[in-house]
Amino acid sequence: MNHFTIWDMVRNLLLAARWTVLLSLIAFGCGGVVGVGLLLMRTSKSRVLRNFTKAYIEVFQGTPLLMQLFLLFFGGALIGFDLSPWGAAAVALTLFTSAYITEIWRGSVEAVSRGQWEASSSLAMSYFQQMRYVILPQAWRIAIAPTVGFSVQVVKATAVTSIIGFVELTKAGSIISNATFSPFTVYGFVAVIYFCLCFPLSLAARKLERRMNAARTN
Amino acid sequence: MPLVQISGMHKRFGPLHVLKGVDLSVKQGEVVAIIGRSGSGKSTLLRTINGLETFDEGALDIDGERMTVGHTNLRTLRLKVGMVFQQFNLYPHLTAGQNVMLSPVVVKKTSKKEAEAIARAMMAKVGLADRFDYYPEQLSGGQQQRVAIARSLAMSPKILLCDEITSALDPELVNEVLAVVRKLAEDGMTLIMVTHEMRFAREVGDLLVFMDQGKVHEQGDPKTLFNSPSTPELASFVRTIS
Fold it and tell me: B89–A119: do the CB atoms touch at under 8 Å?
């Protein structure tokens, strides 16, 4: 405790917070890309694809992220996939994020009126053309606020990866608190840093929601 | 050979038997008005003609292309058949002009420049040349519906289906839309419309089709049919609406 200054704690926590940010970005970016694919499958005409996606979403929404991470990290090693903590964390969070994001986006797609599908169908557009030019541009306006709002959940979810030894903000917090014997101070700072990451996102989500609602006056 | 030939068409929604063997033939350039009580199957019939609804029995011949149960080339069908809806269904994120241009560019791969020329011509045709860059929400209902007509025409369909296209309009806006339809009819467009505008059906229509309980109950020349309906069902329907 004696040779650790407050600045030492904060500096080390901030250094670890870089990995929280990076992991969040990867999870959100990859989760978004996978989410687009799942969304197209979830809303497609094929029942097999729809049911597959439904099952995927049920599994990842219906089990704790911690279990998913354990299964991937330890279970993966058992069947020969030796994932680093980094890899396991990135893959698990991507799968988790994509499951939620797909549902948010599906809701947004379904909020676009049936008439838009019928009009574009009657003008001979294919499913992908309808999505690309008619449905997604409208769904996007509906989806943007809840999507940004969900990014807050992703940032907080990265904390779970500390369990498999990935040194991000939470893990750094527990290491430093073990070394300094002042958990209250250390975890206090950890909480403040998480808040500083998340609050701007919540704020942005709220602002976007207000702006998008104002833009849809009809 | 008629342009549209519907033979023995059946359609069920689960236990509900909506179309019970409909036969109808429409010649090139004919204006057909379909009337009937709600639930008589008239909208469903219209929607099967461009594949928005499938059918369970029967066949549909459009301009020499035969569609049967489960064998429907939707793209071919929809390139020949345009449709205008009760609720306009314009794309709200695009301007009127972009609404009209979208399908020619995306589906027919027409160049942007050519598509714009077509779109401007179609907007002029419906009397909205000066509203090309307006968004749908900046237009009145009647103007929106005319844009929707222009959007269909831009694909140069052989047949235009109109599904109660004036029913969602304020009374004072109905005539501007009907005037556009009347002009299309005079230009020789084949029109099949489900409508509640009986006067319009009588004045512009070549063929009046009265549907009742999923079947074509009576059809013929609109003036004759309105003046002397030969079945009691049509007679009572004419009485309730006039």
Answer: yes
CATH number at residue A155: 1.10.3720.10
DSSP string, A37-104: HHHHHHTSS-HHHHHHHHHHHHHHHHS-HHHHHHIIIIIHHHTT----HHHHHHHHHHHHHHHHHHHH
Q: Does B75 touch chain A (CB under 8 A)?
A: yes
Q: How many helices (H) and strands (E) does chain B have?
A: 9, 10
How many folded domains does chain A comprise?
1
The whole-model pTM stands at: 0.85
Of B52, B137, B151, the CB nearest to A121: B52
Instruction: Mark yes or no for CB contact A118/B85 under 8 Å.
Output: yes
Tell me the mean pLDDT in the region A129-146. 93
**Contact call for residues B55 and B69 (beta carbons, < 8 A):** yes
Nearest CA distance, B212 vs chain A (angstrom): 26
The whole-angstrom distance between B195's CA and the closest CA on chain A is 19
Is some CB atom of chain A closer than 8 A to the CB atom of B72? Answer: no
- E strand or H helix that includes residue B8: strand B4-13
Residue A112 resides in a domain = yes
CATH of the domain at B14: 3.40.50.300
pLDDT tens digits along A144-156: 999 999 999 999 9
| A1 located within any domain | no
Q: Do the domain assignments include residue A197? A: yes
Number of domain units in chain B: 1
